[in-house]
């Protein structure tokens, strides 16, 4: 990665800590799930029509389509009109082609936490900071975090196209697609204070039992919920 000369490049990379969201992954005790090395049946996240093989995957040039072999996957109407879904789908596909989907997924989670930190948001959400400096910050975080080269390639492409503001959305879309492929059920739990892991595990087991999900991901949204008991949504 190129050396950064802007003052932004000197920003201290925050620790991997998410202030208001806590992620917990609970796998089935007796079942393991392995993603296929490459998916061949195609569906398009931007339109609901099938599409032919797209040539941009090796270089991640533009968002177009996403391949899927599972007939159980369902796409919402919203993602069909969302360019971020195309970029995320391309990253999923090329990661599968390189047998590095799980590695990229872990790096995406790490980078997303870094981008959502207060220190990074002070730059990224500041309208007085130019797109160039914001892009340099993202590059520096990826460099210091030693992110996977496929993820770095996508980041560079988005930055070069002046789409820095789309980075977080693309990363979240990637995780959503990955969760669908891996049979993961995402559960949002809101509470006034951070919940104990045992409590979250109990919720995860209940959701897993009712839904039959291979894996359950708990997101503890910490904030004021009044006098109500913690609530959750699947």
UniProtKB/TrEMBL annotation:
GO biological process, one term: photosynthetic electron transport in photosystem II
SUPFAM superfamilies registered for this protein in UniProt: N-terminal domain of the delta subunit of the F1F0-ATP synthase
GO cellular component, one term: membrane
Keyword annotations from UniProtKB, A to Z: ATP synthesis, Hydrogen ion transport, Ion transport, Membrane, Transport
GO molecular function terms listed in the Swiss-Prot or TrEMBL record: proton-transporting ATP synthase activity, rotational mechanism
Annotated localization: Membrane
PANTHER family in the cross-refs: ATP SYNTHASE DELTA CHAIN (PTHR11910)
SUBUNIT field: F-type ATPases have 2 components, CF(1) - the catalytic core - and CF(0) - the membrane proton channel. CF(1) has five subunits: alpha(3), beta(3), gamma(1), delta(1), epsilon(1). CF(0) has three main subunits: a, b and c.
Family membership noted in the UniProt record: Belongs to the ATPase delta chain family.
Protein name as catalogued: ATP synthase delta chain
Taxonomic lineage of the native organism: Eukaryota, Viridiplantae, Streptophyta, Embryophyta, Tracheophyta
């Amino acid at each position: 990665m190129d050396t950064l000369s802007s003052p932004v490049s000197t920003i201290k990379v925050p620790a991997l800590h998410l202030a208001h969201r806590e992620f917990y992954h609970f796998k089935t005790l007796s079942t393991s799930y392995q993603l296929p090395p490459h998916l061949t049946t195609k569906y398009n996240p931007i339109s609901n029509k099938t599409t032919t093989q797209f040539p941009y995957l090796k270089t991640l040039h533009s968002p177009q389509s996403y391949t899927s072999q599972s007939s159980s996957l369902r796409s919402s109407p919203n993602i069909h009109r969302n360019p971020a879904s195309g970029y995320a789908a391309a990253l999923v596909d090329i990661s599968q082609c390189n047998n590095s989907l799980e590695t990229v997924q872990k790096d995406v989670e790490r980078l997303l936490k870094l981008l959502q930190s207060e220190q990074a948001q002070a730059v990224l959400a500041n309208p007085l900071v130019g797109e160039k400096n914001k892009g340099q910050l993202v590059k520096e975080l990826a460099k210091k975090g030693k992110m996977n080269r496929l993820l770095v390639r996508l980041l560079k492409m988005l930055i070069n196209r002046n789409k820095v503001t789309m980075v977080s959305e693309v990363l979240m879309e990637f995780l959503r697609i990955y969760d669908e492929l891996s049979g993961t059920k995402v559960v949002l739990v809101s509470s006034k204070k951070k919940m104990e892991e045992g409590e979250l595990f109990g919720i995860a087991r209940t959701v897993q039992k009712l839904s039959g999900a291979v894996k359950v991901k708990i997101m503890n949204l910490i904030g004021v919920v009044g006098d109500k008991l913690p609530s959750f949504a699947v």
